[in-house]
Amino acid sequence: MATTEQFLTGGTTSYTFSIDKIKDSDIKVKVNGASLTYTTNASPSAGQYYVSGSSITLGTASNAIHVYRETDLDTAAATFVAGSSIKAADLNAVHNLTRLASQEQNQITTTEDIKDS
Questions:
Q1: Span of 22-26, 55-59, 87-91, 106-110 with lowest mean pLDDT
Q2: HEC letters along 6-74
Q3: Cα distance between residue 83 and residue 100, in whole Å
Q4: pTM as predicted
């Protein structure tokens, strides 16, 4: 089964994760149940987080981190135009978008909810 979420501990500001993603902004972070805000600033402020590859940097050190993926389904992965060539890269992009979104739907009840209840 694909990994769509991870629970991390350590009490630092830097963590690594192993969740497939299309964009860095698809990765979401909660600390003690509170959502942090994604930023493109490599030095995030308190209440923010930054993603680069498979690394997360938090604005404030924390010990109970919930990292999960929410794939952006509002933006088309590719646009096909009548009479143009269908490219493998576009087909792969559409497939990846659908695959990742399907994985998330299969794991809609998060472990965090089960732990709390």
A1: 106-110
A2: EEECCCEEEEECCCCCCCHHHEEEEECCEECEECCCCCCCCCEEEEECCEEEEEEEECCEEEEECCCCC
A3: 29
A4: 0.77
Q: How confident is the model at residue 73 (pLDDT cuts 50, 70, 90)?
A: confident
Decide if 102 contacts 20 (C-beta within 8 A).
no
- Locate 5 and state its tokens: 């979420």
Give dist(CA 9, CA 42) in Å, integer. 21
Q: Which helix (H) or strand (E) holds 100?
A: helix 88-106
CA distances from 97 to 21, 59, 69, 77, 82 (A): 9, 29, 12, 7, 22
